[in-house]
């Protein structure tokens, strides 16, 4: 079930926005800031997700999020929580 949810969020991500203050890498983002991140473009990029980026393939996540290739994992933004994990 987790694989299906993650792959669905990869193909159809919710729009990112922050309600609370967050730290993204070395940057502090104030509360109520709207982030404009091209999540859909990133999640469909064949350089990151390989040639089948447009296809629904839950097996991409068969080993869990932490086992994704490091370069792929840092470009997976399923939600604002994903941004904190990916850029922290």
UniProtKB/TrEMBL annotation:
Protein name: Cytochrome P450
Top-rank taxon: Eukaryota
PANTHER family on file: CYTOCHROME P450 CYP749A22-LIKE, CYTOCHROME P450 FAMILY MEMBER
InterPro entries for this protein: Cyt_P450, Cyt_P450_sf, Cytochrome_P450_Monooxygen
Family in the record: Belongs to the cytochrome P450 family.
SUPFAM superfamilies: Cytochrome P450
Transmembrane spans: none
GO cellular component, one term: membrane
Species the sequence originates in: Escallonia rubra
Alphabetically ordered keywords of this record: Heme, Iron, Membrane, Metal-binding, Monooxygenase, Oxidoreductase, Transmembrane, Transmembrane helix
UniProt lineage: Eukaryota, Viridiplantae, Streptophyta, Embryophyta, Tracheophyta
Main location: membrane
């Amino acid at each position: 079930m987790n694989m299906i949810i993650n792959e669905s969020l990869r193909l159809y991500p919710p729009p990112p926005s922050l309600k609370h203050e967050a730290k993204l890498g070395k940057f502090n983002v104030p509360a109520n800031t709207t982030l404009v991140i091209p999540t859909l473009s990133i999640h469909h990029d064949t350089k990151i997700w390989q040639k089948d980026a447009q296809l629904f393939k839950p097996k991409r996540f068969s080993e869990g999020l932490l086992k994704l290739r490091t370069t792929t994992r840092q470009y997976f933004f399923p939600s604002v929580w994903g941004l904190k994990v990916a850029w922290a």
